[in-house]
Each structure stands twice: as C-alpha cells, then as structure tokens.
Amino acid sequence: MSRLAFMNKRDARALRPKAVMLLVPTIGLAAVLVLQLMLSNALASGAHELRDLKNESEQLNTDVQILSEEVDSLSSQQNLADAAKQLGMVSNANPVFINLDSDRVYGEPQPAVSEEKLRVSGNLISNTAMSVSTDLSSLVQNPAVGVATIEISGGEVILSSAMIPASPTR
Amino acid sequence: MGSHDAQPKNRLRVIALILSAIVGVVGFRLVEFQVVQADDINEISYAKREVQRTLESQRGSILDANGEVLARTIYRYDINVAPDMVGPVFRDVEGVRIELSVGEIASELALILDMDVSEVFQAVSGEGNYANLKKRVNAAVYQQIESLNIPWIFVDEISYRLYPSGAVAGNLIGFVDIDGYPLAGLERQYNTCLAGVDGQETFERSVQGMKIPSSAQTIKPPVQGGDLQLTIDSDLQYFAQQVLADSVQSQNAEYAVALVVEAETGRLLVAAEAPTVDPNDPSLTPAEHRQSKIFQNSYEPGSTMKSITTAIALDTQHANAYTQIIAEDTMRLPWGDTIDDSFNHDPRKLTPAGILKISSNVGITKLAGEIDRETRYDYLLDFGFGSPTAINFEGESPGLLREASQWDGMTNLTTLFGQGLAVTPIQMAYSYQAIANDGVRLDPILVESCIRDGEEVMKPNQGSTRVLAESTARLTVDMMEKVVEEGGVASRVAIPGYRIAGKTGTAQIQAEDGSGYGDRFAISFFGMAPAGDPKYVVAVMLYKPEGAINSAGATAPFKSIMSQVLRHYRVPPSTTPSANIPTEWE
After folding, report:
1. What is the mean pLDDT of residues A140-163?
2. Looking at this predicted complex, what is its ipTM?
3. Alpha-carbon distances, residue B104 vs A165, B83, B101, B115, B318 (angstroms)
C-alpha cells in the first residue's frame, strides 16, 4: 500500500510545468491558425479572381458573338448590294471584255447609267438575320448623284499598243 | 483500512469499464461507418451532392465553295423572371445608392426588349418562380439586360441556327426548327455530319446549391458537329437569285430556277430558285416555296430535249451534220394525229443544225423518229432521266420516263421533242453537262466534303457514264452553237467575245384537271460556253410566265447569268470561229 509523502520545495519546483511547455503549443497552434487563415484568404481571393476571369471570359465571348454577327450582316451579299446601290454603282447588263494579249475589245462599251439598262437594281433577296447595315450617310451626301461626282485623280495610263486606255488603279 | 483502499480502486475500475465500453461502441461504430458501410454511405452522400449536366455539342457549319459561312450555330437568350422574388432594385449611381421601383425596372426592360411596359409589368407581377419575358433575344440585348444587374432576372442560353446570307441558297440549305431539329434540305439530309453528340459532366454542389470548384468531372466529352462544305459559290448564287427574282417579278411567273454546272467536274456551282426561302424565318415563305424545285419538281422539258434527240441520232449514225430533211410545218400521222411546228412556214430544207435552229417538231420527228425506241430509251437512261441524281436530295423526284414498251405511237414521237416524259431541272442540266463534257455524264456534286476535327470524314463518290462518243458530243455542241449564231430568239443570248451554244425550250404544261395542255408554258434556255471548249453549263427555266409564247423570257436571265459566270471565273474570250456546218441545204 502506498502512502502520500511530503516533498521538499526544490523538488516541487522542479516538477512544476515550465512556461515554455505551454508557449510552444500555443504559438504553434496560433501559427497554424494564422497559416490556415492566410491559406483560406488566398483560396478565397483565388476563387474571386477565378470568378472574375470567368465573368470576363463570358463577357468577351458575348462581345465576340455581337461583333461576328455584325460582320456577318455587313459582309452579307444583301448589304453589299444595298451599299453599292447607295454609292451609285449599277450592274451593267452589257459587259465588255478585253483581251489583254491582243488589246481587242469584245462588245460595245455602254455606260451603265440609264434605268432601263439595269437588269437588277437593289437587293431582292431577303435576309432577316441582317442586324446592321452599312452607313454611308457620311460618304454619300447626295444619293441622287452618288459617286458620279467623285473625281478620279491620276492620269490615264495608255497601253504600249496605244489602243486601250488601261485602268489607272493598276 | 482495507475497505477504504478498495473503494477508489473499484470506482476507477467502473469508470474505466464504462469508458472502455463507450470507446468500444464508438470504435465499433467508427469501424462500421468507415470500413463496413463506407462505400454505401459515400454513395448516398455523393448522390446528394452530385449534379449531372449535359455538355451541349455544337452543330457544324455549312460553308460554300470558298469557305463563306452559309449556316452556323450561335447562342440566343431567353429572358426569364422569378415573380416571387420581384422587388425594388438598388443601384449605385455615381457613388450614391438609389432604389428603383419595380415599375421603373419594368420600363427599362421594356425599352431594351422592345415590349410594352404593361406587358413586362404583367409578367413580373405574377406568381411562382418562373415566367418568360422574351424568347431568343440576341447577344447585344442579352448584354444590356445583364448590365442592369437585376437579381430576379435570369437568362437561359439557347443554341440557335444563324444563316448569315439569308435566303441565298435557302432552298438547298433547308432549315431547322426552334429546338434545332433539322426539317428540310441539306440540314436534314446531312444531319449525321452536322449534328454533334452531347457529352456529360458531373460536379458536386455545396449546401447552398453552388457548384464546388474543381469538383467537375467530364464523364463523356461532347463530340462537335462536322462542317459541310458545298460546291455552291454563294456570290454567284446570289447574283443568279437576283436575276431570277427580277424575272419572276417582271414576267409574273410562278417560279424560276437556274443552274450553273462546271462541265469538266460536274460540280454544281449555282442552284438558284425564285421565290426562295430565308431559313432564318421559313414561316415568311409559303410552304410550296420552301422546298427545292430544282430537285423536287418535274416538268415536260419541251424543245430543250431536241439537243438530246439530235445527239442520239448522231451517235446512232442515223444522221450526220449534212443529213437532209424537208420539214413542213405540220405532219399527219398514220393514226390521224398531227405533229405541228410552233409557227407556220413553207417546207424548209434543213440539216440537223437547222432543225435545232428553228426548233422544228416535224424536222426532229423526221430525223430521229425511226430510231428504235428501246435504243432511245437506253440513251435517255444514260443521260440520267427517269431516276434521281446521285445527290439524292431530300424528296428528289425521278421525273417520269416510262419504259419504252409502254410508249404508244404518239409518245414514241413526242418524246423526241420533250413531251410525254417529265424531267427535273437538275436532270436536264446534267444531260447538257454530258454533251459539254465530250459525251461523259458525271454525277452531280453538291457536297464537297464533311470535315470533322480538321479531317475529311466524307467525300462524294462520283460516278460517270459515257453517253455519247466524243465526236458526237463535239458535233452536237457545234450544232447548238448555230442556234445562238443564226437562230431567232436564241440569238439574244449572244455575249460579245464568246461562242455560246444552247437551245431554247417552250414547253406546254398539262392542265391540272388533266384536260390537255393549258395556255401557259415552261420556258427555258439551256446552254454552254465557251462553245469551242465548254467550261460551264447554264440552265434557266421559268414556269408559267404570263403572256409568254416563246422562250424569249428565258434568254435575258440566261445571258445575265452566263456573262457573270464568264466574268467571275475569268474565262478568256473565244479566239476561234464556230464550226463550218450547214443549217440548210439546196
């Protein structure tokens, strides 16, 4: 049977828990908590950034779709035909062909200006997908006159054979 | 003393026993949950968190010969509202937080959605958690709605088929319904190429129902649809449709068709119709004009068949360039019927080229009426009549070509000049392609390929049939050139600088009640250029134009389209004269 015995003060002090024993786990725990906090902050911030980037990506995708639909409309044959008409361009029902080798002209050149010579005027083919059309209001001040008033600069280029005036755009 | 010592020990033992029992039970349950039932519990738990989602595949595009997009899939948006959640909206304006009433929000929505305010207000004032405000708005509208940041507005993204060129080649391309299901045309015929296969993914959601990032797992990746590349040149197609629309309007015709075929390859470059359908909104077009008449409608071709008959007569050596025929304007048959020319004339001394030039029914009957009907029937089959083309377009008509044994005496002769049989415009165009291509008829090609993930997964398997000897085909072209050079109406198709060969057709149309021929015609012009070495076949047919008594109405659109084809493909002008063959004899 054991009995309780008295202990001297020195022994008792030696047996008393040291402060460092308490501090080490406390600091360790605090460090873990701080690290966890930092980690979850970083994760949360990463998640926010991910969400922002995802939103931005969706936004840009929508922008791309809007722009590509605009490009579709502007490049459609219907819009180009309407724009050409606004600019005063007409389809010539009497095309003339030039043989560049022989400088020979096939056909009777006739200006495509009078109404009866227009086989096709304006667009006749429907396109309900056209969301925008070319705005030529700044270019065509007077639609009745159209581009007929635009002066072409540059001199006439004459072929070596001096038979056919060549295009000044070459 | 002994009893004092025993008490704490017993107490400790009891506590230890209880603790052991608790630990034992907990441990047992732990093992049971974590090991024995772990899989079942995990499964139940995962089932509660797991959400399955379809990964939608995108339908492929339809492209023209130059890669221009004729059909593609984009997104449209359904704008919905949760009426139960509707309330004032708070918004920061220049740093000041303001409250907008439901009425003010309704006005904003109405302006963007192009709706009445009352309509919007009615929708948002309802009950429940779902009401649709507007369906299928475009991305620009969707973006404006999103920018309002209204917490009780939510949006569904919907796949949507867009046809950027509208009605250009609309009759060929066909269309899909509101759910993207193909209903007509190439959209339907080539659905196996165009349609993708939806995939599937799973992800876990939190208690709040939010998707847990990084939990997504793709079970089955989606397979995107393939792109369908056509031989159609959309710019040329548009031009031809413009010309046809103008002709139908000015001549008050029921409809018109035009085809452009590359003679040496059999590629179909244009298959234009008027009226046509805008696949973006097929409901705007009457049902009878939503189909492709080029493939699905057959008609008695009339005089354009005379080129075919002449070619058969030449190939079977029943005739040559100098065969002499005296053609009266009427011919009485042994059984009492008559064959008449379309105009009165004195007996003419004609060669086969002359018969084509004045389009004499009597002349062609005298030229080829003696050819054995079985032989002619076989030639007609080789020319492609009586069966659908290799394109096998949805609902394509085979035309009507009865077996030779079923031809009565009159049919035996009327088939020589295009009556008593019916053809589709595509069949007729490719019979001319055979003549233009030195006597070899090629299967028409409309679809060049199906491309999936950058690889061609389908290519047409083109067949060919030698119908005529090369020399026969060449001579037939020379004779058809005389039709344009010296003919009456046909001379209107002449294009300065180019040699053109062709044939007019003014075909009678059976009355719907079967009481014989009516007073309206199917007028046509089928031709090729340059006649010295034909590169392109152009075919134009107007059905029931008002007041037409000859094919003059078909020559102007033919000339316009052929001129454009020659310009478009930079065909050099002809440099050689036409063949020196007679049209009449003395």
Report:
1. 47
2. 0.82
3. 67, 16, 5, 14, 87
